[in-house]
Amino acid sequence: MNASGEARTVRILLADDHTLLREAMRELLGFETDFEVVGEASDGVEAVELAGRLRPDVVLLDVEMPQNVPTETVRGIRSVSPGSRVIMLTMHDAPQLVRDMVESGVAGYLHKNIGRQALTAAIRGAVAAGTSGGGRRLVMSVTHGSLMSDQTPSRLISPRERQILVLVAAAFSNRQIASRLSITEATVKRHLRNAFEKLGAVSRIDAVNRAAAAGLIHTRPMPNPGDPRSA
């Protein structure tokens, strides 16, 4: 409610690289009289840019988008628009991904297969938690095992090694990774060698697929058996 007693309009930014899904989401949210979709992004960089410009109350952020390392995108959004509540939407609940998102400061982590009522309730709950001053509260829709599973695998590789493997999975070269992370190519190669050894991997693709299978990073499998870029 605002000062006049009227229901507050919740301003929402949609971030998903699938146009059809964004259109469906916009239509679904349009049934709620207190919701307004103020912008749409198709990749992580655009999501951060629009969040800074529009200052939405809520960002519904797809995990799998181009130019999107989820933890970096979330932190970027929170940096340019501290009042925005970020709710991740995904079809996956790998334990490490859930923990990484929670640590990055998301207000919610939801499966895309939830219903309209659950989604709208999650949005209102996230906004209410952000305006009540009662501390951080998460809205979650994941399997119990995602949060309670043994966390030993998450310590197999370091946070920096995970970060680099995510960028490898996104087809970044060593030089591009070094530039993005403000480190040297030699440092990138050293982290990759360490990750290879820890994972028992023989190539970049093998390392990415092994890390993804263990829930250490979140990415689609890389089917190409060749590995054109050496570590």
Automatic annotation (TrEMBL):
Family matches, as Pfam families: GerE, Response_reg
Taxon lineage: Bacteria, Bacillati, Actinomycetota, Actinomycetes, Pseudonocardiales
What protein is this chain from? Response regulator
The region annotated as signal peptide is none
* Key words, A-Z: DNA-binding, Phosphoprotein
Fetch the InterPro entries from UniProt. CheY-like_superfamily, NreC/VraR/RcsB-like_REC, Sig_transdc_resp-reg_C-effctor, Sig_transdc_resp-reg_receiver, Tscrpt_reg_LuxR_C, WalR-like
Top-rank taxon of the source lineage equals Bacteria
Domain (HTH luxR-type) ranges: 150-215
SMART domains membership: HTH_LUXR, REC
Q: Does the keyword DNA-binding apply?
A: yes
What range(s) does the Response regulatory domain occupy?
A: 11-127
Residues that bear 4-aspartylphosphate: D62
